[in-house]
Amino acid sequence: MSTPNIVELYGVTKAFGALTVLHDIDLGIREGEILTLLGPSGCGKTTLMRIIAGFEATTHGRVTIKGSDVSYLPPDKRPVNMVFQRYALFPHLDVFDNVAFGLRLKKWPKERVREAVQHMLHLVQLDDYGSRWIHELSGGQAQRVALARALVNAPSVLLLDEPLAALDLKIRHHMLAELKRIHQETGTTFIYVTHDQDEATILSDRIVLMNKGCIEQIGTPEEMYAHPGSLFCARFLGETNILSGAVSATDSEATFVNVGPGTAKVPANGTAVLLGQSVSLAIRPEALQVARIGAGEAAPEGVNALEGVVDDVVFMGSRVVYSIRTPIETIKYQETRSLDGSMLARGERVRASWRPEAAVLLTR
Amino acid sequence: MMKISRQERMGLGLVAPSFFFLLVFFIIPAILLFVCSFWMAQAFRLIPAFTFDNYARALSNTGFYFLTWNALKNGLCTAVLTVVLSFPAAYFIVYRTRGNLLFYLILVSWFSSYLVRIYAWRVILGSNGLINTTLMQLGLIDQPLEMLLFSPFATIVTLTHIMLPFGLLLLVSALRDVKKEYVEAARDLGASQTEVLTRVILPMCYKGVVGAFMFTFVISAGDFVTPQLLGGRDGMTTGILIANQFRTAGNWPFGAAMAFLLLAAFLVVYLGFVRLLDLLRLAPGRRFHD
């Protein structure tokens, strides 16, 4: 049985004047999940979130939350709360009064407000910060207050608009872990907007990859990484090698693609291809096997292999990333640093090969 | 010798010109005037002394209270009208328009001189003016309304007209600091549009509101040209009285004493206004929990 959807979007289209920024979006968000809207800037992810929050009206389409249509409700009447990119904490109020803001509007009695606010400040580990002014907080602390201010209202869905963009890298990783913990403790559904694929893969139950106002692909981070559905997806999530070529043969088992001087075999994955059609193969850098070619050794007929010269070596601690210049493309190869510390050197001739199932056949 | 860092030197250099200007043209004259308010005047000559007679004379005169009340009334009405009228316009300019066209159009009224505008209002409000003739032709009145011109009403209308661009300028720049995301955050947390105004926008542009109010209040309450030209007999203000002491009566000490009494009254209004905003919970920096 599938988890019921808490938010549903039906044919959501948004145009600003002549510019259409969202095209006919259908999307269901499951109760309790962390769903990430991922994409480059200008892909419409922020607009989509603002439509769910009620800050933008749809041009066409409907939004439902918990089964009821909220398309025409103003933001203050929707059971969602938002964490803003630059937090938007009220500078004329202290931390306690910022967190209490929503509850006081609901006319909660004083005692209950105090209990709820203290509980929230405890959840975000800012127990003794109630009387601090906003300008006295660090970026990470302000982020926590913004979370507490939204979550204290017990929203059906918490919307997070690039909440970590203003933090430096070290705090960002710490806050990601914190967000996961808070998600687990509250069980609230999170919709998270980001352009950062690392944040998306670390945090999400599911990723919605967006491009030019359309949904490119939806899936778990693992699915998206292992089975990208398009060139855009393969490039956006993680490092990848793209090899282009024409289909030379195809049957129910496998497809063969001319890649440079050789041929590549890819298992059939249901994608219909025609003979001669130009397609792309996506191969992750860590899925390659690379071996030195000894002097004088005859190069065998290339199946799932490319020969080239090591162009660049980047040492990254636990792993090493090589650039290998082949006749058609410069490809990346990544390996875990071997225990004896041996590495390929620049200028060495190598052969890069891969297992057929390591490549993904892409037609768009 | 004390060392002054480069940054401090630059700071001093930036402040010095305006400080020097204020010192020569405001602080020193104000001190001299204050000293003068304890002197005596006899037959157009100043006699150094230390007497409270001038203050006592003003405070024991019912006319002084009446005129001061008029001045404060003009100032308060003008300030309230200016803030109330320019706030919605400022709100519209900051949150609903992209460019500054409307803003500049309103500021254009500054280009005409102060006196021209006073005389323009004489034409509009006079017995044969725009308002009276229109009302008479519509048959709403038989006689021209004399109270339109030469009344506190005329003074306040004109002063508000003159002050409006100042108020707008101050409120627009204050509202520009209240970024749209604060408004959105408040809406998101369940605030209605009115609650956004009272709980977020007004406290956040507190300085602008107080600034616009006090600026228009001080200038209109102290003004003596507009009441003299438009206020009529009942519209006389302390400003006119003070100006007369310096210009015709030649009693500088008495004029100075009244000027400082008026200043004290302004301070009371300022403190009262700030207290009122605090009581209405519109002031920032307040904690609502213990």
Automatic annotation (TrEMBL), chain A:
Superkingdom: Bacteria
PROSITE patterns linked to this entry: ABC_TRANSPORTER_1, ABC_TRANSPORTER_2
MF term (GO), any: ATP binding
Start and end residues of each ABC transporter domain: 7-237
InterPro entries on file: AAA+_ATPase, ABC_SmlMolc_Importer, ABC_transporter-like_ATP-bd, ABC_transporter-like_CS, Mo/tungstate-bd_C_term_dom, P-loop_NTPase, Transp-assoc_OB_typ2
Signal peptide boundaries: none
Alphabetical UniProt keywords: ATP-binding, Nucleotide-binding, Transport
SMART domains listed in its UniProt record: AAA
Record-linked Gene3D superfamilies: 2.40.50.100, P-loop containing nucleotide triphosphate hydrolases
Family per similarity comment: Belongs to the ABC transporter superfamily.
Protein name: ABC transporter ATP-binding protein
Lineage: Bacteria, Pseudomonadati, Pseudomonadota, Alphaproteobacteria, Hyphomicrobiales
From TrEMBL, chain B:
Localization per Swiss-Prot or TrEMBL: Cell membrane
Recorded superkingdom: Bacteria
Bilayer-crossing regions: 12-40, 71-94, 101-120, 153-175, 196-219, 254-277
Topology in the lipid bilayer: Multi-pass membrane protein
Family matches, as InterPro entries: MetI-like, MetI-like_sf
Keyword NADP in annotation: no
UniProt entry keywords in alphabetical sequence: Cell membrane, Membrane, Transmembrane, Transmembrane helix, Transport
Keyword Membrane annotated: yes
Similarity remark: Belongs to the binding-protein-dependent transport system permease family. CysTW subfamily.
Protein name: ABC transporter permease
Organism: Ancylobacter koreensis
